[in-house]
Automatic annotation (TrEMBL):
The lineage of its organism: Bacteria, Pseudomonadati, Pseudomonadota, Alphaproteobacteria, Hyphomicrobiales. It comes from the Bacteria. The keyword Membrane applies. This is ABC transporter permease. GO terms for biological process: transmembrane transport.
């Protein structure tokens, strides 16, 4: 069966018209402004040592940025976060796809995955200290540990939910295993794969700061610990705001890529 024939069988849908972004951006803006307003009202009832207002946090972030401390710390933090996330993807996606499509592999690995997933990821920090030390390798290992099992479970669910009728149609037309994977299984699993990537990205941000606080205090974790000793809540909240923005940016980037690739989902929902 030719690639062109398989594409025809799949009924490649036309690209759905892009949804209006203006109303979405307006909702984002309203949500952020409302959140900042609530924060300001609550902070006005406390000392700045206890809860700094948004303006104080912004001023502190500007100071940390102008001094170069925050950019250096952020650059170092993103290095082990990105490396750990890529390693987690390289492990979780193939294993998840195999678990979803091969019953024997699923029966062998599913109990192990669920047992490890049930253990809080931070509980592995002492073992990671023993195995990898306290520095870069240990931080990467903790990111991998905190991302992999979430991604395996979601990826496996996507592979299991692939439409069996479409796979049977491809098989009846003489499609090879690679063709069935490329034209049927992979497109069917893409929404789940992107969900796994979004979950993994947020977990990677979580693991990044956890590693920098629980292991050797470096980068953003060092800024937070030093600020806590000085009762500098503005700096602590500033780092938390940066982490929130990183997580939000990664989510939006992956959602944008998903909308560009999974065009048939937009057509189905319209």
């Amino acid at each position: 069966m030719t690639d062109a024939a398989l594409s025809a069988v799949g009924g490649r849908p036309k690209r759905a018209p892009a949804p209006a972004r203006r109303s979405l951006m307006l909702l984002y803006l309203v949500s952020i402004v409302a959140g900042l307003g609530v924060w300001h009202v609550i902070a006005s009832g406390y000392s700045s040592f206890v809860l700094a207002p948004p303006t104080g946090v912004l001023n502190r972030l500007v100071e940390l940025t102008m001094s170069g401390e925050l950019p250096r710390a952020l650059g170092g933090a993103l290095q082990h976060m990105a490396l750990g996330f890529l390693i987690a993807c390289a492990i979780a996606i193939p294993i998840g796809m195999l678990m979803g499509r091969v019953r024997l592999i699923n029966d062998l690995l599913d109990p192990i995955v669920n047992l490890v997933y049930a253990v809080p990821s931070v509980a592995w920090a002492p073992f990671i200290m023993i195995w990898f030390g306290l520095f870069f390798e240990a931080r990467v290992a903790l990111v991998v540990m905190m991302c992999t099992f979430d991604m395996i479970i979601v990826t496996s669910a996507g592979a299991q939910n692939a439409d069996r009728k479409l796979l049977n149609v491809g098989r009846s037309f003489g499609a090879s295993g690679w063709q069935r994977f490329r034209y049927i299984l992979l497109p069917e699993s893409l929404p789940f794969l992107f969900t796994a990537l979004r979950i993994g990205a947020v977990r990677a941000v979580n693991a990044m700061i956890t590693a920098e606080l629980f292991l050797a205090a470096v980068n953003l974790g060092q800024i937070m610990k030093q600020a806590a000793v000085r009762l500098d809540s503005a700096a602590v909240l500033g780092v938390l705001a940066v982490l929130c923005m990183i997580g939000l940016a990664l989510q939006e980037i992956l959602l944008l890529i998903e909308r560009r690739i999974c065009v048939w989902r937009q057509g189905a929902s319209s």
